Amino acid sequence: MPNRLTRIYHDLFSLDIGGTKLAAALVRDGKVTGRNQIPTPGSQKPDQLIAALATLLTPLVPQAKYLAIASTGIIDNGVLTALNPANLGGLNRFELVDEASRISGLPTLAINDAQAAAWAEYKALSGPVQNMAFVTVSTGVGAGIVLNGELQTGPRGIAGHAGHMLADPTGPRCGCGRTGCVEAIASGTAIGKAGQAIFGPDCSGQTLYQHALSGHRDAIAIVDRSARVIANLIADLRISLDLDLIALGGSVGLAEGYLDRVKHHLSTLPATYHTDIISAQCGPDAGLLGAADWAKQQHVS
Ligand code: BMX
Ligand code: ZN
User: Quick one: CATH architecture of 12-116+284-297?
Assistant: First the structure.
């Protein structure tokens, strides 16, 4: 006979709100079923996001008892504040937990997407690792940090927003308002923008990356600059937190050849900055799995 909590968490519904896509699924015994995905609407007003959430939540709600959300942005007491509103179609404040629980009728908990993915990656590791970070290079650059086996969300939900640490004080202005953030140089959005001067106004991060893979020298230089900035970010995390390992994910982080470039740039720094870097293992379900497991832990404790 399963105990009450086991029964409840067979019925956990998880939602991942990213800069590019919204995904939803039931999470049962650490496995994702009934996954559904739609593009993230681009609007400064909340109505489109509310409608998109309703589209995803409504079909699966009858099978769920709890809702766990991983979302881009700073999640503080259930409210989403975009550090870089451009990553969320210009929307910069959203009553995420209130809206999602109103639509679903389910008790709801939310954390940042990279924090959630970090938790999933940590749980997927075997061996004695207690201190690690997940770094995603995608629409933005996000990170989640696990110290002494505990996910760091911070008192205001900000912990891990390492994509907004300084990479180059003379670099481009970041959507967060600061100049020269890692995200403004290394993200998929940033490399796409850098490529627009060469390949025209429609150049996206994906297009630029394809040009680099085809051997275009300027495109390679843009990708390599991104990888160097990420290597330095990893070095900063290592030297400030003494981490055992970094899991690198996101559409750029997992793209062909990117991890090797990051490893190469890290290897040019003094040995104290070196740390193991692996490809993120949970793939596109990392946010869903991590938010579900983290929510389960919050309810149990
Ligand atoms: C941005 C920030 C982070 C997020 C990261 C990766 C916003 C809206 N988002 O730095 O909270 O974790 O992007 O987000 O300010 P993704 O959408 O690229 O996964
Ligand atoms: Zn920034």
Answer: 2-Layer Sandwich (3.30)
